[in-house]
Amino acid sequence: MTGGPGCSALSSLIYEIGPLAFDVADFDGSLPSILLNLHSWTKVANILFIDWPVGTGFSYANTSKGYSSSDTKSTKDNYTFLRKWLLNHPMFIKNRLYVAGESYGGKLVPMIAMEILLGNEAGLQPQMSLQGYIIGNGITDPNIDFNERIPYAHHMALISDEYFESAKVSCDGKYDNPDPNNLQCLLALQPIQESINHVNEVQLLEPKCKYIAPKPGDFGWDQTFREEDSVDHLFLPTSGHDRLWCRSQNYVTSYVWANDPTVREALHIRKGTIGDWTRCNTSLSYEKNQGSVLHYHKIFSKKGYNVLIFNGDHDMSAPYMGPLKWIRSLNLTVDDDWRPWHVNGQVAGYILKYKKNDFNLTFVTVKGAGHTAPEYNPKECLAMLHRWLSIRPL
Ligand SMILES: COc1cc(/C=C/C(=O)O[C@@H]2O[C@H](CO)[C@@H](O)[C@H](O)[C@H]2O)cc(OC)c1O
Fold first, then answer.
1. How many whole angstroms from 21 Cα to the centroid of ligand 1?
2. Cα–Cα nearest to 334, from 349, 356, 313, 350
3. Active-site residue flag, 371
4. How would you write the pLDDT of the chain (394 residues) with one tens digit per residue?
5. Cβ of 46: how many Cβ atoms within 10 Å?
6. Using a 6 Å cutoff on CB, does residue 105 contact ligand 1?
7. I need a labelling partner for 15 at 20 to 30 A (CA). Which of 184, 251, 299, 340 fits?
8. What is the pLDDT of residue 238?
9. Contacts with 66 (C-beta within 8 Å, 6 or more apart), sequence order
């Protein structure tokens, strides 16, 4: 499951872990060519890519009321879909099953896993062979994940020791949505904000680009885009005169492809169901009604499941330090202490394994990767998944 909420699973399929990718290098504005992704996760697993919540990607409801969704509603929808899909594809019922998601999708992962567990316990058919779950740069508890951004910025040398110390003393760990009456904290956060504002928060090392309204005909797609649903379309570097490459430009290919009439016909998208396809639908009526999902992880940690939590370590929006903090709160035992893991003789990141009875949790960093880790380090991420799924040491 992709994040957002409201980002299409097509984004994860094409730009991250699916078997196909667009040829962004040769893209000239017309229908992009399709390439094979050598590092597709489908080499080691069958994957269902789900557009959730309803209204995301090509998914649609028949009534306007049907579009209102939430964490709990979407969890149930995903579970219902999975049950129906498995009943229609019985050859997959016995397969080992993992629920996987990234970013905001990581919040739904333990919720859906719990729904499966409860459904199995209630004897619902089909019984699913749930083995565990996988979360990449996920959000678990915004209080933990987002408050770790400032300590992370300090770790990554974006703010000085003095700025950090002063915020630490004044803000009592509440850097995200600080108490508006705590003037000391607000003052301490000011130079911190100025230091990090112009850094690309999803990949510290890449240029930060800001949206400017595209002109009709830009990229050969002669539509005027609405700003709210076309934030990926055209970006300019926030400073400097030269047009820099920005990763977000790669996403233009998805809009051109998914809105091409021949593509939509080939995909059997029913006419009149949705208008323009957008990579992330930001106008959904979605209630984030589960603040934290840490309690789901707590319940799973008392049962026999296998969990993989991985983080591109150059992402400041959902920094690796968030999971490290909430995982520590589960009171597990360290099974394999922090050590590097390798791909092609190079350090690909770091691993830390925990255990408690039959529960195994592997925490992995992907060195140098941003928010959507497989998009940045595809080879390493496939190696990680392959080794973890085959219960080999990373
Ligand atoms: C709960 O409140 C927040 C949620 C998020 C979620 C981000 C997210 O899913 O990112 C998208 O991830 C997907 C990958 O799953 C990418 O493709 C999209 O580009 C990306 O937008 C972020 C926040 O602050 C930055 C929040 O405050």
1. 22
2. 356
3. yes
4. 999 999 999 999 999 999 999 999 999 889 999 999 999 999 999 999 999 999 999 999 999 999 999 999 999 999 999 999 999 999 999 999 999 999 999 999 999 999 999 999 999 999 999 999 999 999 999 999 999 999 999 999 999 999 999 999 999 999 999 999 999 999 999 999 999 998 999 999 998 876 544 444 444 333 333 333 344 545 545 555 455 678 888 999 999 999 999 999 999 999 999 999 999 999 999 999 999 999 999 999 999 999 999 999 999 999 999 999 999 999 999 999 999 999 999 999 999 999 999 999 999 999 999 999 999 999 999 999 999 999 999 9
5. 10
6. yes
7. 340
8. 52
9. 54
Residue 253: CB atoms within 10 A of its CB come to 23
Question: pTM here?
Answer: 0.93
The residues, ordered by sequence, that sit 6+ positions from 241 with a Cβ below 8 Å of its Cβ are: none
Ligand 1 and 203: CB distance under 6 A: no
Query: Cβ distance 206 to 200 under 8 Å?
Result: yes
Distances from the Cα of 61 to the Cαs of 52, 69, 73, 177, in angstroms? 12, 11, 14, 34
Assign 186 to helix, strand or coil. helix
Q: 333 Cβ partners below 8 Å, 6+ apart?
A: 354, 355, 356
DSSP conformational letter for 216: T
Is 103 catalytic? The answer is: yes
Residue 212 neighbours by CB distance under 10 Å: 11
Between the CA of 1 and the centroid of ligand 1 the distance, in Å, is: 12
Kindly give the distance from the C-alpha atom of residue 372 to the centroid of ligand 1, in angstroms, as a whole number. Answer: 10
DSSP letters, 53-108, are STTSTT---SSSGGG-EEHHHHHHHHHHHHHHHHHH-GGGTTS-EEEEEETTHHHH
DSSP for 264-301 reads: HHHTTPPTTS-SS--SB-TT--EE---S--HHHHHHHT
Token couple for 130: 């749930």
CA triple 157-161-164, angle to 5 deg: 95
Contact 316, 156 (CB under 8 A): yes
